[in-house]
Amino acid sequence: MIFANGDCYITYQQEGSISDSERARIADGFLKGTHEYLKELQTTKHTLTFLYSPVKVMEAHNTIEPCDLVIEEVRAFLGRMEVAA
Asked: Do 2 and 62 touch, CB atoms closer than 8 A?
């Protein structure tokens, strides 16, 4: 499940645990990747939370609802990392 989590976070949450090795692989992929809006990744046992700047997205797309655009970027990233979102 992917959802907006506050004003500047998008969270991917799954029922089962994300293993330490999987979290490390995803975090490494995040650091090595190029992102349009994603600025930071925080992980827990069940979640991946992405930080973004809503103002940057709103200005770039002339919108007041930036989270849908960022959710699509998160989906694309998770797809590249082979995480079923």
From this structure: no
Position 85 pLDDT exceeds 80: no
Instruction: At 32, list the tokens.
Output: 């090595």
Which of 8-12, 44-48, 64-68 is least confident? 64-68
Where are the chain's structural domains? 2-80
Mean pLDDT for the chain overall: 95
CA distances (Å), origin 30, targets 34, 41, 46, 53, 76: 8, 7, 17, 17, 12
For residue 52 the two structure tokens come to 């973004």
CATH architecture of 2-80: 2-Layer Sandwich (3.30)
